[in-house]
Amino acid sequence: MSNKSTIIMRRRGHVLHAVAQWEGDMLETFPEGCDLNVTVSRARSLRQNNTYWGLLAWVIENGPEWIGRKWPEADHLSDALQIDLGYVRYVGMFGGEVRAFPESKSFQEMPQDKFNRYFTAAQGRLTEMCNYDPLPVYLARGRERTAA
């Protein structure tokens, strides 16, 4: 079993605080005063990540009908966008051909600045596909739901 875990901490002054309850619970498994090795990096935005996946699902459900027919799941649309926009990794196959696969968007593998560039490019491509920018419409509908 690995003794390494990645948890998100929020800085307040010179003190780091666990963001989620489970992360605080994990910290409590260490004795008080225990020294921990910490690698500092900026966390990816959970809000932006949720907006990305919510937007894709919303476009499939509410955007032009052909999009939902061609890509019935957000994962499918995400993969197609990544390949179309060049966010790929290339794999040499045993037969000699080289194929492009979507690059990982995991928080550990795609830093925030790269995801920002991808999100902007994906939004532009979705705007072309829908003939309008779906992001403000999606966000407005979300605000309407929470206000109701």
From TrEMBL:
<protein>
    <submittedName>
        <fullName>Mll7976 protein</fullName>
    </submittedName>
</protein>
